[in-house]
Amino acid sequence: DGGITQSPKYLFRKEGQNVTLSCEQNLNHDAMYWYRQDPGQGLRLIYYSQIVNDFQKGDIAEGYSVSREKKESFPLTVTSAQKNPTAFYLCASSMGSGETQYFGPGTRLLVL
Amino acid sequence: QKEVEQDPGPLSVPEGAIVSLNCTYSNSAFQYFMWYRQYSRKGPELLMYTYSSGNKEDGRFTAQVDKSSKYISLFIRDSQPSDSATYLCAMSNNAGNMLTFGGGTRLMVKP
Fold first, then answer.
1. Residue B93: count of CB within 10 angstroms of its CB
2. Which SS3 state, helix, strand or coil, does residue B82 take?
3. For residue A73, what is the DSSP state?
4. Does residue B76 carry a pLDDT above 70?
5. pLDDT at position A41 over 80
6. What is the CA radius of gyration of chain A?
7. How far apart are CA A10 and CA A12, in angstroms?
8. Which end of chain B is flanked by fewer CB atoms within 10 Å, N or C?
9. Radius of gyration of chain B (CA)
10. pLDDT higher at B55 or A100
């Protein structure tokens, strides 16, 4: 059963803490993406990766970091430098950049 | 001005109505056009994918692209309460660049 999984579904962060959101895909897609969605807003691109061991900043990369050590996995770390992290985080993948993207179920991050 | 504009709504219609959702864009290089449906607190799911101009039909859904006007539409026939969701348009050029998303239109279909 192919798809994209994200975990956890909900995540709570204490002030000053780094947290990592997981994204795994078994679609054999080369490209993976992280988006942030605020209430009533569209999707804003945080980071993307077109191939293993390579990634680029999106429009709002400050306060976030990523890694792409395996084709299937693209974890996102929300660092303490991100002052307003409360949002819905979506991971997506596609065969190649610019092609149709398929989304995971999302992780809702809340600050305690 | 945003590269892709989409009325945020909400758009409220009675069950059975024909719904028209629209996006306008400014980049004439866009060639690939998509519509996603997003239920509350869920990830977006791909509804329709079209290339260049023309119409594409899939069941109750029709996607229309007018490149001369830089305008795309999604029509939903016989709308159902289960169609209540936010609809996002997305587009890209053919140079391997990122998708550009509209802000989404929230649709409510009332029984």
1. 15
2. helix
3. B
4. yes
5. no
6. 13
7. 7
8. N
9. 13
10. B55
**Token pair for B111:** 């029984």
Chain segment B8-64, per-residue pLDDT in tens: 889 999 999 999 999 999 999 898 899 999 999 899 999 999 888 889 999 999 999
- Residue A34's alpha-carbon distances to A56, A67, B37, B52, in angstroms, are 11, 11, 18, 27
CA dist A106 and A27 (Å) reads 17
Q: Round the average pLDDT of chain A to a whole number and report it.
A: 92
Distance (Å, whole) CA B38 – CA A76: 22
Confidence bin at A47 (pLDDT 50/70/90): very high
* Residue spans of alpha helices (H) in B6-107: none
Give the whole-angstrom CA distance, residue B48 versus residue B56.
Answer: 8
| Residue A104 near residue B43 (C-beta atoms within 8 A) | yes
Residues 24-63 in B contacting A (C-alpha not used; CB under 8 Å): 32, 34, 36, 41-46, 49
Is residue A34 packed enough to be buried (19+ CB in 10 Å), middle (13-18) or exposed (0-12)? buried
Place of tokens 């600050």: A111
